[in-house]
Design a protein that fits this description.
Layout: E1 3-7, E2 10-14, E3 27-31, E4 35-39, H1 46-54, E5 61-66, H2 77-85, E6 89-91, H3 101-109, E7 126-127, E8 133-135, E9 140-145, E10 154-158, E11 161-165, H4 183-196, E12 200-203, H5 212-234, H6 241-248, H7 257-273, E13 278-280, E14 288-290
Parallel strand pairs: 4-5, 5-6, 6-7, 11-12
Antiparallel strand pairs: 1-2, 2-3, 3-4, 8-9, 9-10, 10-11, 13-14
Helix pairs in contact: 4-5, 6-7
C-alpha cells in the first residue's frame, strides 16, 4: 500500500484487494499538490483510507473525490473519505443511472441476472456530466462519459492523460454484465478513446497503458472476434449464453467463466439490437438465441 509517484502532480495508492477480477488491487489516484483530487477511493478498507491520507503531500488537502463508476472495488470508500476530508463526491450518478431504455426495461423484469459487485448504496454529492471541466489552482480535469462496463462509467482527462477506470486496462478485457453493462455502449466508448489517442491511460487496475490507441484497437478486435465466434456457433443452432460461453471460452480459468457468460450475454443482446440475432421467447439470462 505504498504510494507511487507516477509523474509530477500524480500519485497512486494501490488498494489491498487483489483478485482474479482486480489483478493486484484497485488503483487510487491523487492529482495535485495543494488541492488534491482523488480518483476512485476504492473498497471500504480502513488500511486503504489510512494509505490515501498518508499520501497527501505536506500542505495539501483533498478538495474533490471523483468516482469512475460504482462497483464495490471503486466507490465504497468515497463516503468515509468525504467525511474525513470534508470534500464532495463527484460522479455521473447512482448505480442505476444512465441505463439505456432497453437495459432499464430488462432490469425491471428481473430475468437478466447481473448486479454482481455493484455498490447499490452509492450516491454522489454532485453529479457531473460530459464536457464539464473541474478546476483548482493546481489542475484542470475534464469529464468524459464512457458507459459500457457500467452505465454510470466516467473517464477523466488530465494533461493529455485519461483515467479510464475499468473501460480500458492493459492486462485484461473488461467485464460487461447487463443490465449494468452494455456492449453497444462499451464498443462506442472504446472507439472514442481510440480516436482521442491520449498520451497514456491510467486504468483502474494494472499498469498504465502506454500505447492507448493500439490497446483500444486491440480490445475492439478482440470483441469483434468474440462476436464472430458467437455468430458462427449460432449457425449450428439455437444456444444460450451459458452454453456458448462454455464452448467459446473452453480454455479459460474456470473461476472466470461466470464473467465470460456475462460478456457473452452482453454480445447477444447487442446482436439482437442490431437485428443480427433473435431470441426464442422473452429475452432473459436463460433465453435461447438464434440467427
Amino acid at each position: 500500500m505504498t504510494m507511487v509517484q507516477l509523474e509530477k502532480g500524480l500519485r497512486q495508492v494501490l488498494a489491498p484487494n487483489p483478485s482474479p477480477m482486480t489483478l493486484h488491487g484497485t488503483n487510487t489516484y491523487l492529482i495535485g499538490e495543494r488541492d488534491i483530487a482523488v480518483i476512485d477511493p476504492g473498497p471500504a478498507i480502513p488500511a486503504h483510507l489510512d494509505a490515501i491520507l498518508a499520501a497527501i503531500p505536506q500542505g495539501g488537502r483533498i478538495t474533490h473525490i471523483l468516482v469512475t463508476h460504482s462497483h464495490l472495488d471503486h466507490s465504497p470508500l468515497a463516503k468515509t473519505l468525504s467525511q474525513h476530508a470534508q470534500a464532495p463526491v463527484l460522479a455521473a450518478g447512482p448505480s442505476d443511472w444512465g441505463r439505456s431504455p432497453l437495459m432499464q426495461s430488462l432490469a425491471e423484469t428481473g430475468n437478466l441476472g447481473g448486479g454482481e459487485g455493484v455498490d447499490t448504496e452509492f450516491a454522489p454529492d454532485i453529479q457531473i456530466t460530459e464536457g464539464r471541466t473541474l478546476e483548482s489552482e493546481d489542475w484542470q480535469i475534464g469529464v468524459l462519459e464512457t458507459p459500457g462496463h457500467m452505465a454510470n462509467h466516467l473517464s477523466f482527462e488530465w494533461q493529455g492523460a485519461v483515467f479510464s477506470g475499468d473501460l480500458v486496462m492493459d492486462w485484461s478485457s473488461s467485464l460487461v454484465s447487463p443490465p449494468d453493462g452494455d456492449m453497444t455502449n462499451f464498443m462506442a466508448s472504446v472507439e472514442r478513446l481510440e480516436d482521442m489517442a491520449p498520451r497514456i491511460l491510467y486504468a483502474g487496475h494494472g499498469d498504465p497503458v502506454t500505447t492507448p490507441a493500439a490497446r483500444c484497437a486491440e480490445l475492439i478486435r478482440h470483441r469483434r472476434n468474440r462476436e464472430a465466434q458467437i455468430l458462427d456457433a449460432l449457425t449450428q443452432g439455437p444456444a444460450t449464453a451459458k452454453g456458448l460461453a462454455k464452448d467459446i471460452y473452453a480454455d479459460l480459468n474456470p473461476k472466470l467463466l461466470p464473467a465470460a457468460e456475462r460478456n457473452t450475454l452482453a454480445h447477444l443482446i447487442d446482436l439482437v439490437e442490431r437485428k443480427l440475432a433473435r431470441t426464442q421467447g422473452a429475452l432473459s439470462v436463460d433465453a435461447n438465441f438464434s440467427i
